[in-house]
Amino acid sequence: MFAVLKTGGKQYKVQAGDMLRVEKLAADAGETVQFNDVLMIGGDAPVVGAPFVSGAAVQAEVVEQIKGDKVIKFVKRRRKHSSKRTVGHRQKLTLVKITEILSSGADASGVKAATGKGDAAPAAKAAPKAKAAKAAAPAAAAGSDDLTQLTGVGPAAAKKLEAAGLTTFAQIAALSEDDIAGIDAVKIKPEWVEQAKELAQG
What we know:
5 helices, 32% strand, 202 residues, five-stranded mixed beta sheet, alpha+beta, four-stranded antiparallel beta sheet, single chain
């Protein structure tokens, strides 16, 4: 019996007992993980998923975290003002041993799902940014101010400020250094805050 699983953007054909090098997983050596993205189960009664086989999974034991072979990237620009650059890279991988192929009942196995190191990062990073945006945009009176009155703020910068939830001088004047650091849409200058305080007072 074999299975075709998908992890790290690649597909692997595996059997019980196989050793496999996959893209780095968020697991320590000795842990058991479960690959839930199974494209096919092969054997006496093959099952092909659309795209995944419902209820199927592949369980594996993490042997160790390793690095792949070194890859050299060399760039050379010819002629006048030429330059050369050499960069080395070793991909982080996880060595796993396939222990079991489940054709059904994967949901009730209770084994931790195999996920990459970066899978949960975007959601985790999004939360602080959302908090910063809320802190940067306290409740203000209806309407918005002409932000182009601030020195160095043109129409493009004003749109970016509005996209970050900043539409009035009072909101910009209330920004703290932490709030400014948490806003990625536009780089807010300290002098904008000082000018906004004066303009907000009328």
